[in-house]
Amino acid sequence: MKVMAFNARPDERAFFDHFSQSLNMDLTLQKDTLTLDNVALTRGYDGISCTCDLPAPILEKLAENGVRYVALRTIGYDNVDLKAAERLGIRVSHAGYSPYAVSNYTVMLMLMCIRKAGYIMFRSHTADYSLGASGAARGMEMQNLTVGVIGTGRIGKAVIHNLSGFGCRIIAHDPYPSEEMKQMGVEYVSLESLYAQSDVITLHTFLNDSTYHMINTDAIQQMKPGVVIINCARGALIDTRALIDGIESGRVGSVGVDCFEGEDNVIRVDHNYNSRVTNHDYIILKSFQNTIVTPHVAFFTDQAVFDMVQCSLESLHQFELGEKVPLEVHAA
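Predicted structure:
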């Protein structure tokens, strides 16, 4: 089977080499993303592995080139035109990976926010080791807080397991409540009730038309004053302008996000250290001392990268064998 992997990073190479050999796969690595400008490279290949956007025009070119299978190395698949893929007869899979990569990172952001780590580190960089004006560096303790988890899939469940040792009250919202989580003492509530009760809100749901900008001006007004908002899921779940307004008004006490709207158009720096800013909301969000903004790295652990490469290549192998596989193939 001939496969071309796009967006192939150096840190993935050892895993690509291992699994392509074990699966007897003819694999070509491309460091660049797949675009209409380079899609011709896929001519004669059976499948591709990628992390890029796949709109209908690119899928149509892939089909013309004989590509029958697409395997994402990401858990999200909102970047693929699935209707076009179905129309063109291209099978698509997305990758499962260790849920603890994102869940551990989520709890880290929670702790940094409630203990005002960003503010404290900023002050320490200026050799200011005081407690801040009026005790501005004073934080909160997790066991005194109610944490609202939106979405209790694999990652949301892992977050709850991580939080269970802190003694906090945990409530959740999901269209399909988990019996396992209920047995752990998690109370499922409406979204409005979660907003009203939570000291910390963390997002672990998918992005579609129903969840786009679910955190907006109206939602923020329903939340507790000083609420902490964490997002390690999808940037567009939050209306960035509404979030900025909430921070400026004091309604939102702290924010920890690893994703944000338009994150592909933020800052580009060339080798001569020339930069251009194309997402001004991002710059504004980072300017607050009570926000922590990281560049979509919550997933980035050795285990997760191993899992994503494994799932991607094994999905393609199973497609080729004609096996019926679910959209998501989990690593062992």
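Summary: Confidence is low (pLDDT under 50) at residues 269-273, 324-332.
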